[in-house]
Amino acid sequence: MLILGIETSCDETGVALYDSERGLLADALFSQTDMHADYGGVVPELASRDHVQKLLPLCDEVLDRAVCTRSDITGIAYTAGPGLVGALMVGGSVAHALGLALDIPVLGVHHMEGHLLAPMLEDNPPGFPFVALLVSGGHTQLVKVSGIGEYELLGESVDDAAGEAFDKAAKMLGLDYPGGPRVAALAEQGREGVYRFPRPMTDRPGLEFSFSGLKTYTLNTVTAEQAADNWTEQTRADIALAFESAVVDTLVIKCRRALEAADCDRLVMAGGVSANRRLRAALETMAGKQGASVFYARPEFCTDNGAMIAYAGCQRLLAGQRDGDRIVAKPRWPMDTLPGLADECLDGLAP
């Protein structure tokens, strides 16, 4: 099958072509970061309107790169959720319109399943089972994956996701949106040991996360240093490093526990925060000590993209799953409600 993948869950318009026999043929991405930076975060209405403008030109660009035409496409996968409902509707509307015009099957895909399966696009993909750390602006979860659609939630954040915490810490430090990469860049200039931030929920058993207290600790540190007239570029860098180190250490500790609890020796890291170099290095060190292996997608496939949606959709379309006549858009959608590949599904991926 030749699958057109469409990703419009938030502020990136992603399109890709994936062939079930030849692999990924082409992909293209347009990021709205510059537009939303003026507002300090994503404006849903602006995001939806920009998807409308960019989506079809990106589809044509990907087809040109792959030397294909629309008539060559045999299936379409689009992000059905979670995400911003207006943005999801844009992708779903285009997918269903093209599917109807071309008389081919269409399927709404779970955004986080796309992230989880993104490492499958690499030359050395992980085998099942594995433990997945899904870490992004909206999610921080540990999941045991026995197969596509066979997911057991091991733990998740009880408040903010790690990526969201990065963005809010960036605002405290006077950094622009998106905050995660900017905090990481500033942390490179930081000095080890100047500040020691707490590692939340690591002093108790379990696999849950919490980053709200860490945000408060960061804010209190920033406020104290500003009041003491010690607000220098070096101070900002030291705080950035202390914050990043606290998040990384927390994620690593929980991943080690998850591997032990699941009796597994493969760890998959996915989502936008998985591009963080300090986190990658720390997880590889931990895994080496545990006799485990770490897998992750190339940096451009860590953030939202069409390739991951095309791949995930291809697996389910090959299994016969497809949408009914209506567009599926689910702003909130627990991943552990997804059907397995053998389960019949005629109306999106609703259970």
UniProtKB/TrEMBL annotation:
This is tRNA N6-adenosine threonylcarbamoyltransferase. The gene is tsaD. It is an enzyme of class 2 (transferase). It comes from Marinobacter segnicrescens. InterPro entries: ATPase_NBD, Gcp-like_dom, KAE1/TsaD, TsaD. Residues 24-311 form the Gcp-like domain. Fe cation binds at residues 111, 115, 304. Keywords: Acyltransferase, Cytoplasm, Iron, Metal-binding, Transferase, tRNA processing. The keyword Transferase applies.
